[in-house]
Amino acid sequence: MSEFEADNSHYSIISTLGQCYNGVGVVYLAKHLPSGQMVAIKKFNMDMVKDEVNLIQHEIVLTKQLQHVNILNNLVSYVNDSEVCVVSPLMGFSSCRDLLNVHFSEGLPENAICLILRDVLEALEYIHRRGIIHRSVRANHVLLSENGRACLTGFRYSCPIIENGKWQKHIHSFPSKLVRPNLNWLSPEVLAQNLRGYNEKSDIYSFGILICELANGSEPYSEMTTTLMLTEKMKGTTPHLLDCTTIFPDDHDGHGDSALKSLLHNQAKRKFSESLHEIAALCLQQEPSERPTACQLLTHPYFRFNRKHMHLSEYLLPALPLSDKVAYNREDMESLENIRRMSDIDINSYEWDF
Amino acid sequence: MPLFGKSQKSPADVVRALKESVNALERGGEKKAEKAQEDVSKNLVLIKNMLYGTSDAEPQTDIIVAQLAQELYNSNLLLLLIQNLSKIDFEGKKDVAQVFNNILRRQIGTRSPTVEYICTKPEILFQLMAGYETQEIALNCGTMLRECARYEALAKIMLNSEDFYNFFTYVEVSTFDIASDAFSTFKELLTRHKILCAEFLETNYEKVFSHYQRLLNSENYVTRRQSLKLLGELLLDRHNFTVMTRYISNPDNLKLMMNMLKERSRNIQFEAFHVFKVFVANPNKPKPILDILLRNQEKLVEFLMKFHTDRAEDEQFNDEKAYLIRQIQELRPVPGH
Predict the structure, then answer these.
(1) Is A171 helix (H, G, I), strand (E, B) or coil?
(2) Contact check, Cβ <8 Å, A167/B266
(3) Which GO BP terms apply (chain B) (predicted)?
(4) What is the spatial distance between Cα A99 and Cα A108, in angstroms, rounded to a whole number?
(5) Nearest to B221 among A77, A82, A130 (CB)
(6) Where are the domains positioned within chain A?
(7) pLDDT value of residue B9
């Protein structure tokens, strides 16, 4: 394996892949020149951010201290001009959210879901054992590599279980306002912000929401206001997998949005396995102590399969992984440069007289 | 003996076993090292579980923990573990830090026995600080150092050592994660214990600020911004009044801040503003400072009028800016010169 150095000249940007951190960072496809290997580089313009600085640092330092095949690792991170650059392996299929948006608006096929979930569980089992709660398990934080391995990312929202030299049974550090985009995935006990606090089981609830997200295609609770979502969760209402066992004819025969109707109509034709329904329900239980741990879930027969016979990339067709043949996207790059230049104010006209 | 599961080893047994395996690891030898590494990790987990408990078991009783701590002191194992940290496997390194941090927090009444122990073994602290020079252990050492810095006695040893000045290099290394971790520790050491820090900065003013100057002029944007922000915090802390007075009497410092006010980066401009304001607000400006401000009186007023006008919602900033503009407008040469 080649060494990745903290030297910007070793990486040649090829194109932009997208945004991250709600638009604070830009992800680029780049080539590591010494090895010719393709990598992803996240760049954060630190001059454009305020409160996020700490989150970005937290994530980079924490990720460096995690080592697991199902957690996206940083190869190296460095500062170039006012940008912090984080180099990580290229994840060819991008995030599960991107896949749902582009190719699978009705949800992923069950085989793919099963493979992805097992990898996510492995990652959760590892971080929970190491005393970390993720607090942001959701489809856009699950990335898929070209060879079909799922990796968990998005550790900026995580928190430690060990505090003051003790393993805390109840965490009360409620996520800051910056966590807002995750509300729909958070467990009722995290949202309740009461004295009972929460523990790593809150990630299991989010995992349950992730199952529904992957299966149904849409973001959970996306059609509701935040207040309604909160009330629903407190009442114990949970989302479920949409298939012929859960969609009733009325649901898609009535009047209303025709696109939604045809979506439901298609979803009503399929059937997920009973095990998947069961696992989702187990994870989404209101009472945290009744939810299984990541470790227990991994022993569920549903996740005991031989990986050799299952290839994620086949189940993901027609989606194809990103390869290094992506063309250089000059227009994109130029408009980005222009935005950057515009944001500089003219201050060179002042010369101090000492 | 319990019927199921492994029998509980006594603290003395585990510590002895760990020490033997660390010694074996230190001696090296290819095959043996691998076995030794496994043994080290296994015993570390045992100790960690005694201290933290597991999902099935509560942490051990205070008596057992007291025995364990005593064994760790007597065997000199804490130092040995840190000296050999780079040879321990990835998860084991983190376990060392967790064991260390837990033992460090041990209290008997108001006493902290581990803190007292480390005071007699300051090599532990120097070894930890030097950890920033080795990539694979830098972050592990960082978590232990910040835990140590919470205790005044330990912070004092670190601040007063020659090794402290290495932080000025560590905070600027090219790998971002290590540099930013080192900066957190550096900041903790300079701000945690107000009176100790003030004394330290006063006594070592020349040395500290000549090093600090380098950070403010760093090529690295993040270092420059963080150190400027910290400078502002240090100067505005009332404990550091003497240090502040000294800092704002030096015209070179004023020149640096005026130049940083017009750096490209908006955040650096903004942080520089918070240091610059102290120079202007000083009721007893030394002549060289006053001269510079007077020479640039009009330009400064015009500049400040246009400075960060988009921060309309930041009331405090706008009040301060208005105050500075007024102060500068009213500046007059000292009569008789």
Answers:
(1) strand
(2) no
(3) intracellular signal transduction
(4) 8
(5) A82
(6) 8-90, 96-315
(7) 82
